[in-house]
Design a protein that fits this description.
The protein is 25% helix and 16% strand. The protein has 327 residues and is an alpha/beta fold. It has a single domain, classed as Glucose Oxidase, domain 1 (3-Layer(bba) Sandwich). The strands form 3 sheets. The protein has a 9-stranded mixed β-sheet with strand order 1-13-11-5-7-9-10-4-12, with helices on both faces. It has a two-stranded antiparallel sheet with strand order 2-3. It has a two-stranded parallel ribbon with strand order 6-8. Helix 8 links the parallel strand 9 and strand 10. Helix 2 packs parallel to helix 8. The two termini are 21 Å apart.
Length: 327
């Protein structure tokens, strides 16, 4: 699949747009938000604080209704399952500097201990809603003082204990651009997502989980690890209003969602910040979407039922995770 230029324009404007498209240049740059002030204005306009009540701790999980779950179950036609988790990385690497996975066996060799830090870029996990804050407030205008060294007083991962069962959609942007992977620092814009919707014959709708494939793991397998925390393909912050307008329940990617550098002066991870602290949207980080992309291509459909059940640690800022897509 390759991205197509819009041929519907006429006159000189059409010529400029077509030349820009053919050259791979976005004629609409620069995008907003461009700086801290513009991001804060976006945050104030689009946040979901109070949308589901002052005491809500579930955020956009509320968009996954019983009807949505039944619709997702109807997507299961063949019973084929695909894991979205990357196997734990046992060795430290430039993209996994503080999160080496340690596995030790007990003396009987019938028990074991796992020790690892899952936040970062090495372990497949989900973020809870107390993981990020903005202007000294957590999601839904909750004071950070609600959290202590014993855990988050509110918005912890235990709020997802009943599990996530809804429609998942793979946004395979690498496939859209007909490349095995996007190069680091490649921004993904709304028109990329909508071009993929058209190519794949899908439409993102309320209660969906979207998984953005940049090809991070394919690139790592070919070229080795790199410092992805400073240089990665991902969503540009201008996509955020679209995510809210479409009613997306959760967002996932094969890295940590944001294009890095963020292209928004003064804030390192604007997409992460708005999703968690503004929208109340949990994020699936470091998903391995390669097997999913292969299976979706074989099935020729990029929608599926997605299931995920975090470890319900009271007050946890997230959980390691093994989501399962079912076709």
């Amino acid at each position: 699949m390759t991205r197509k230029c819009n041929m519907s324009l006429v006159g000189a404007g059409a010529l400029i747009a077509l030349v820009a498209c053919a050259a791979g240049v976005d004629s609409q740059e620069p995008r907003t938000p461009r700086n801290l002030e513009e991001f804060d204005a976006l945050f104030q306009e689009y946040n979901n604080w109070g949308r589901w009540g002052a005491d809500d701790e579930r955020g956009t999980m509320n968009l996954i209704t019983e009807e949505k779950t039944r619709e997702a179950a109807a997507l299961v036609r063949r019973g084929v399952t695909v894991s979205l988790a990357h196997n734990p990385i046992p060795d430290e690497a430039v993209d996994n500097p503080d999160a080496a996975f340690n596995h030790t066996m007990g003396q009987s060799l019938r028990s074991d201990t796992y020790e690892f830090t899952y936040h970062g870029y090495g372990v497949s996990h989900i973020d809870s809603l107390c993981h990020f804050l903005w202007n000294d407030r957590l999601c839904n205008d909750i004071l950070p003082s609600e959290s202590t060294p014993d855990g988050c007083g509110k918005l912890g991962i235990q709020n997802l204990k009943t599990g996530i069962v809804t429609r998942g959609i793979l946004l395979d942007i690498a496939r859209l651009k007909d490349v095995p992977y996007l190069e680091p620092e490649t921004p993904i814009y709304v028109e990329d997502i909508e071009a993929w919707e058209q190519e794949a014959g899908i439409t993102v709708s309320p209660g969906d989980v979207i998984f953005v494939r940049t090809g991070r793991w394919a690139r790592r397998a070919e070229l080795g690890p790199w410092q992805i925390s400073n240089s990665s393909a991902g969503l540009h912050a201008s996509v955020l209003p679209w995510i809210k307008d479409r009613g997306v329940a959760f967002v996932g990617s094969d890295a940590a969602t944001d294009v890095m550098p963020s292209m928004v002066e003064g804030i390192r991870q604007p997409v992460h910040t708005m999703l968690i602290a503004g929208f109340g949207t949990n994020i699936f980080d470091n998903m391995d979407l390669e097997a999913l992309a292969d299976r979706a291509a074989q099935e020729n459909r990029w929608e599926f039922m997605i299931t995920a059940g975090p470890i319900p640690v009271e007050g946890g800022t997230g959980s390691p995770l093994n989501p399962i897509a079912i076709f």
